[in-house]
Design goal:
Blueprint lengths: L2 E5 L3 H13 L3 E5 L2 H10 L4 E5 L7 H11 L5 E5 L4 H9 L4 E4 L4 H15 L7 E4 L7 E4 L5 E3 L2 E2 L4 H12 L7 H9 L11 H13 L5 E6 L3 E6 L3
Parallel strand pairs: 1-2, 1-3, 3-4, 4-5
Antiparallel strand pairs: 6-7, 7-8, 8-9, 10-11
Helix pairs in contact: 6-8
This protein binds calcium ion.
The site of calcium ion has 5 residues, from loops.
């Protein structure tokens, strides 16, 4: 379940969107204008935003700039008018993650939102994630770049190893299924698609080797997936 913010001034469309996204299991909050959206974004955490570009008072494009300044990692899907090619280009250049033109198909919106949220992988607070352990060196993972550190030492990770580690760190303490890992890899640029699931074991082994001395362990939970846990002292 993701927590989504819909920013749309058209009441019918807003309510329709909210109802549909609720139905597929998201937590949905709606705002009719930029001011309401800003106070919500300042007080609550969201995993993604659906932003209409044609808004009163604060325009959708201004909203997008505002979001990008404060919440650089928050995924944003923009809704634009059918003939608004400039809007789409401008929106993507301004940091929108995806767009849909009105009128759109609800199934397509759900598919695009799902893909956008998977790509984002990490909760939308951006910055660096840190995992405490009983070792003196903490594991830190950059939420947007393929970089991670053990203490002050940078870990040498491939894009795919980083994606796997980020996923485990984000879900530290709960099991991540093989399917979740493969899905994350498939949304990565490059050769993620078509990854054989037995290759996953190889990556898990490599990560374990790199996490030696971190006080962290990747446990294989038979039949379920993988769990990042702190070693017992
Ligand atoms: Ca509008």
């Amino acid at each position: 379940m993701s927590s989504l913010l819909i920013i749309e001034d058209d009441e019918l469309l807003r309510d329709g969107l909210a109802a549909q996204l609720l139905q597929v299991g998201h937590k949905v909050t709606a705002a009719a204008d930029g001011e309401a959206a800003q106070s919500l974004l300042e007080s609550q955490r969201f995993d993604g935003v659906v932003l209409d570009l044609g808004l009163p008072k604060i325009s959708g494009m201004e909203m997008l700039h505002w979001i990008r300044q404060r919440l650089p990692a928050l995924p944003v899907l923009i809704l634009t008018a059918r003939d608004g090619v400039d809007d789409r280009v401008q929106g993507l250049n301004a940091g929108a993650d995806d767009y849909l033109t009105k009128p759109f198909n609800m199934a397509e919106l759900q598919a695009r939102l799902g893909a956008m949220l998977r790509r984002a992988r990490l909760p939308a607070f951006g910055g660096t994630l840190e995992v405490a352990s009983n070792a003196t060196r903490r594991l830190r993972v950059d939420a947007t770049l393929p970089q991670a550190w053990l203490g002050d030492e940078a870990l040498e990770l491939t894009q795919r190893e980083w994606a796997l580690l980020s996923l485990l760190v984000t879900h530290a303490g709960r099991v991540v299924s093989r399917e979740e890992v493969l899905e994350t890899w498939q949304s990565e640029p490059g050769d993620g698609a078509g990854m054989a699931s037995n290759a996953l074991e190889v990556y898990i082994h490599r990560l374990r080797r790199k996490l030696v001395d971190s006080g962290l362990n990747i446990r294989n939970v038979r039949g379920l997936g993988y769990l990042l846990e702190t070693n017992a002292a």
